[in-house]
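Lab manual, section 2.4: Encoding a predicted structure.

Procedure: take the sequence of the chain (344 residues), apply the prediction step described in section 2.3, and record the output as structure tokens. A sample record is shown.
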Amino acid sequence: MKMRQTFNALKLLAATALATCAVGVNATTLTLSNWVPPTHFLTTDVLQVWAANVEKATEGRVKVRMLPKPVGSPPQHWELARKGVADVTWGNFTYEPDRFKALWFAEFPLNGDNGEAQSVALWDTYEKFLSDKPTFQGVKLLGVGLFGGGAIHHGKKDIVSPEDLNNQKIRMGGPIQKRLLEEMGAIPIAAPGPQVYDLLQSGVVDGSLNPIESVINFRAADLLKHHTLVPEGFYDATFFLAINESKWNKLSEADRKAIMTVSGEHFSRLWGKVYDDQTRAALVTLKENGHKFNTPSPELMAKIKQVSDGIYADWVADKAEYGVENPEEMVKFYRERYKALKAN
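Recorded output:
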């Protein structure tokens, strides 16, 4: 009897081992192109966490391997996923503003200062209004994100009134930020965020538009010590996580469903929460180091709203370009969803 029990136990162990080996052999590995450093919080707290979640959700049948270096420049990452150069990529929709004009609304001023609520609201809006648009074909969108509202940062003075921006050279990115600065009397200087330190040190710019966390993460804390926090954000930026559509379709239905349990709304919430945590931590650090934080005057707030209203009106008028029949309804849905999520 004991010998039979031992034999049965050995058979069970052998079967389990074989099954485990089979999972390992048959596992699908997805390559992920990442263009921020391995120590950046988006790598450690968002992308690697999502990759681990995918492996766990699929019980090891799908793994995500982050490539040692990106396979293209940041603006190329949507196309890199669409063409299958990398299986999974992430990036900024603003890097291709004309292509993704349907999403401009989420980057308008006064649109939100809670990254988690904004990101989930944007995902819900994409699913309801945009997921079937030709712009998004060729990839499966796995999540979106915003950073919770950008601020105005200056190296030498407080920005409180509209006049404070006159003739100030401000680093920025994207058409919305450019128009904002131009109509408020500033001189926009287009450059990627990571270049802000060099631009400030060389005197090319006087200030920069960034989320609070970037002042620290882009090593600019010694050069940007005056910060103007605009309630509900001076602007924002929209991001994506995407997988090549053909690669996605080759996965089993069970694995696709499993991956979506940790993607979509789940990923968008993770993205926004991490940004909110980074913002809170940066505020504490900068205040401890004597940085000056300012509130816009009523006149500056009125000017921001005036410019924002003009940008919004022009964007709505261009609806034929981005194929949304009723963009006002889409924006209303997004803003109501954001308010409800922020209140919870």
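Check your result against the sample. Residues 221 and 289 are 9 Å apart (CA to CA).
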